[in-house]
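[agent] plan:
  1. take the single chain provided in the ticket
  2. run structure prediction with default settings
  3. attach structure tokens to the ticket
  4. add a short note for the reviewer (M.T.)
[agent] executing step 1
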Amino acid sequence: MSASNTTPAPRASGTWLQRWEPENEQFWNSGGSALAWRTLTITTLNLTMAFMAWFLVSALVVRLPQIGFKFTPTELFWLAAMPGLAGGTLRLVHMFLTPMFGTRHVVSLSTLSLLVPLVGWFYAVQNPATPYWVLLVLAFLAGLGGGNFSSFMPSTSLFFPKRLQGTALAIQAGVGNFGVSIVQFVTPWVIGFSLLGGAAFMGESQTMTKAGVQSQVWLQNAPAVMIPFVVVFGISAWLMLKSVPIKANFAQQFDIFRSRHTWSMTSLYIMTFGAFSGLSATFPLLIRQIYGGFEGAPDPLAWAFYGPLVGSASRVIAGPLSDKLGGARVTHWAALGMLGATLWVTTLTSPTGLDSFPLFVAGMLTLFFFAGIGNASTFKQMPMLFEPRQAGGVIGFTGAIAAYGPFIFGMLFAWSFATFKSATPIFYGLAAFFAFNAALNWWMYARRGAANPC
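[agent] step 2 finished; step 3 output follows
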């Protein structure tokens, strides 16, 4: 696309902008910047709701046995894992959508699709006789929120110049990731009272038994409070967003798989976001399994939300840092930090009492902190290694594969507890994987004299 250096950014009618040149400074300053930041704001709000819907199950699953659902620990880990299976699979579809249908259609319609799992969970949790297979289906449908990431993030990468992509992508993903901690933090509070003055259509309360003490809860409130936000944000996206005129059909987008950088960046992003998402989904159950058998055991949801909160905040902070220092250098230190934190956690996963619980939480939060930093820095590396349309595709693909984190982690922990009665073997395996990726990133991108410094 070519244009005069003095031509202002055009106003567009309908869905598609006439042209988009973020690297053209005059174009950027004369309207492009305002549109890009507006798009980022709207898309980020929608992405936050997507993450909330995606991780809703992780906040509900620890409460289900307390209100009468009869499930084994393995079945509970399966429920926590299903949104990850769906999220990763749907991201493999979403990675192709933005160049085909544009930002406006993809963001608005995919956001409104979240109403399906939210309404489903609203009714399902009110009846402890709901069949397990129904909950599995609803857990899978919660993965609709996970899929959105791989179309929203590539869209954002198209709107910004390379010098700002680390910051823009870190803001969107970091604030979006706050949806994980929001749903895990809000759920214990919002289920504690009747919404809308006890209106009949909001459903009846359930009796929760915890440590022998009974109380009334409204578990359906957790999905209910999200529904109006999903409606408002989805409609706002339809009314206010435009689409960048960078188009490609399905077949054309497969060219990214011919580059070795696609596969190396996928491994690095599995290390960072795979760990973030997988541990975010399983952290409540890990607390319950490792420390729940002791007298005075902590409430998992009172602690679990801190993990994604710390990881999301560090992701936002690390975006501008990656723009300044270079993504590969920041990824290098993030990988080493994750390795150290994981080895620390292995010393705390076979406790003899609650004395080690604060250290366990501290070790996990350190792991979340460095995972968040790596999430931001890897997304700075990708736009530096690929041209804009390919970078968007790689961002979508790496996000898709890493989104299997909740599923993989759920299955691994379920297997480890069933086989070894401990989570320690999984953390040793993670340490080995993190060490491999630290070496991979250093050799390909971070070392002095690397062929492709980024």
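[agent] step 4 note for reviewer: Residues 260-291 form the longest helix (32 residues).
[agent] ticket updated
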